[in-house]
What we know:
The chain is mainly α. It has helices at about 1-5, 10-30, 40-60, 60-80, 90, 95-110, 115-130. The mean pLDDT is about 90.
Amino acid sequence: MQFLEQRRDQALALFRIVIGLFFLIHGVQKILKGGSLLAWPAGPASLIELIGGALVLIGLWTRWAALISSGAMAYAYFVVHQPRGLLPIQNGGELAAVYSWAFLLLVFTGAGAWSVDQLRKSGKKSLTNV
């Protein structure tokens, strides 16, 4: 188990990168379909998916981007999907629910390795050590 524990930050980074990429692609797909960015709630949701996905992907302001993205997906689940049925399998809201929980995890864990947040943090440490 020590082998796995030593790679925790890298596994978290891969998780963040994949979730961010998928969310970004989801937003790009909606925008390319030609939907209006002013239409509620699809327009703002598309922007959150695009911008939030990109920020999570590169690991910049990860906790804030993940918090907003998690909230947007919780809203999508409860307002759009949940009225169609109680369970995600019944209402087609599995993806919204999974995204909401995945982003909530990133709110608590942060970006992990290979992130702009980590570079910014290490840059500040090196500046204070000068």
